[in-house]
Design a protein that fits this description.
Blueprint lengths: L7 H11 L18 H6 L2 H5 L17 H12 L4 E5 L2 H11 L7 E5 L4 H10 L2 E5 L3 E2 L4 E2 L4 H10 L5 E5 L6 E2 L2 H10 L3 E5 L23 E4 L1 H4 L7 E5 L4 H11 L6 H36 L6 E2 L7 E2 L3 E5 L7 H11 L6 E2 L3 E5 L6 H12 L19 E2 L4 H6 L2 E5 L13 E3 L14 H9 L4 E3 L8 E5 L2 H4 L1
Parallel strand pairs: 2-3, 2-6, 6-8, 8-9
Antiparallel strand pairs: 1-10, 3-16, 4-5, 7-12, 9-10, 11-13, 13-15, 14-15, 17-20, 18-19
Length: 478
């Protein structure tokens, strides 16, 4: 059998299970002997027999040298990386390892304002200081786009001492930054490029999709293999260039469990195998289905789909449907689809519902979705308020680490001008934070928070925004 077309971790597990050794080791269910009937219903008997770890034959995730190492090397080759690290703690841990392994305390790093909270956790762990970048916004669909090449160029010119740029590409809605152009800008100045590619593990398998981060020149990219491909939930991969190997592997070992679930590791190995065998065929079929879905949605009165994105590229498998023409919010549409029509979307916001089309879909599942969308009710039009997102660069007054460990107090919003925010404040739409931990609160932001109408506020302890958490001042602390 060709080496690329088998799964070394899965093969090692199967071999250990078949050997017949009586287990006097973890886990306590002893290869399924003691498993409760409900657990037996969840996992096959063979799955329970193979749910072991820390055996010599099954390798060591923290110091891989046999089957895990081979599986990771096969993944690196497939995804155009020098090395790959498997993660069973989710992409959150992969993003944190990517940052902790490349940044040190005090380093400046450019970060989109709407980065995932795992990025903020990575800043707390590393001690790096963020320079928050403005994110472009689509007012018609009320959703965030991405960071433009022009924004990155301006940021580098203004802060040439920065250590790194972090992109989120593609974002939740499938909008991808021009990673190739940004990579050239970043590397020309000696900075490094990190990409949170949680929603892009499939990009490398279809030429109709945006370029994958590693193919576009990124130094490291964290992927949620489970989100779009066929591994189990909580499994991810971190792609990297070899010059970052030692420090990033050390960081990964700090963040990964010392008791990795072998079934999770095997699922990563098998997802890689599946893409090696037929990835281009499967992902291309998903793209074709998504295109057909878009065409059918455009025929439904009151609905429109998010398609062309000026200055950005779009992952076609993320199908965003705007329901404002029906007089519905996205949340209302999600509830109706789930409750009455047995369709569950990936997410909803004030104006949209998002559907993921993957290699597991077919004409039948897409047809059912189309029929369900045709049955959505029509209601009187309603106004959706959207807060203008910040358009300027913002350097944190305190690093997220300093903010995390600082004593905080609650003050009236109108008295918070000039104080350091201890919490994030985000309005939906557009889902781009107006305030981030460590930022100084301006009079303009206070005025906006005090008067703005919004659909939903996230991050603030006081959802009415009459009060806000701030870092305790020296005078107060004393």
């Amino acid at each position: 059998m060709a080496k690329n077309f088998y799964a070394p971790i899965a093969a090692a597990m199967k071999k250990y299970s078949a050997d017949g050794a009586i287990p006097f080791h973890t886990p306590g269910h002893k290869q399924g002997r003691g498993a409760h009937k409900l657990l037996r219903e969840l996992l096959t008997a063979e799955g329970l027999r193979q749910e072991v770890s820390l055996m010599e034959e099954l390798d060591d995730l923290h110091a891989p040298h046999t089957c895990i190492r081979e599986a990771q090397e096969l993944a690196a080759k497939l995804w155009h990386a020098d090395e790959t690290i498997f993660f069973v703690n989710g992409t959150t841990a992969a993003v944190q390892a990517m940052m902790l392994g490349t940044l040190k305390s005090g380093d400046l790093i450019f970060i989109p304002r709407n980065a995932h909270r795992s990025v903020i956790a990575g800043l707390i762990l590393s001690g790096a200081v963020p320079i928050f970048l403005p994110v472009e916004f689509d007012s018609e669909f009320n959703l965030p786009l991405n960071v433009s090449v022009e924004t990155i160029a301006c940021a580098i010119k203004k802060f040439p001492q920065a250590r790194a740029v972090l992109l989120v590409s593609p974002n939740y809605y499938g909008v991808a930054a021009d990673v190739k152009k940004i990579s050239r800008l970043v590397h020309a100045t000696g900075m490094i490029l990190l990409v949170d590619e949680a929603h892009g593990a499939h990009l490398t398998f279809c030429d109709e999709l945006p370029s994958s981060a590693m193919e576009a020149g990124a130094d490291l990219a964290a992927q949620s293999t489970h989100k779009i491909l066929g591994s189990l939930t909580q499994t991810s991969m971190l792609m990297l260039r070899k010059n970052f190997s030692e420090s990033v592997r050390r960081a990964a070992s700090l963040l990964q469990t010392t008791s990795p679930n072998q079934l999770l590791l095997a699922s990563l190995d098998i997802a890689r195998l599946q893409m090696a065998e037929s990835g281009r065929e499967k992902i291309s079929a998903a793209v074709a289905l998504a295109k057909n879905l878009r065409g059918e949605i455009k025929k439904i009165h009151g609905l429109k789909t998010f398609d062309a994105v000026k200055n950005f590229s779009l992952d076609a498998t993320k199908v965003t449907v705007n329901v404002q023409g029906l007089g519905l919010t996205g949340q209302e549409a999600e509830e109706i689809l789930r409750r009455d029509l047995k369709i569950q979307c990936e997410l909803s916001d004030a104006a949209n519902i998002l559907f993921l089309i993957t290699f597991a879909d077919d004409a039948q599942t897409v047809s059912k979705l189309i029929e369900a969308l045709k049955l959505l009710p029509r209601r009187p039009p309603k106004k959706i308020y959207s807060t203008p997102p910040p358009k300027n660069f913002s350097v944190a007054e305190l690093s997220p680490r300093e903010t995390f460990y600082s004593p905080v107090e609650v003050v009236a919003l109108k008295k918070s001008v000039g104080r350091i925010s201890a919490e994030e404040v985000t309005f939906y739409p557009p889902g781009i934070p107006l305030l981030m931990p460590g930022e100084k609160i301006s009079a303009e932001v206070v005025e906006l928070l005090a008067r703005e109408k919004f659909s939903r506020v996230v991050g603030a302890a006081d959802e009415t925004l009459s009060t806000i958490k701030v870092v305790q001042s020296a005078a107060t602390n004393g």
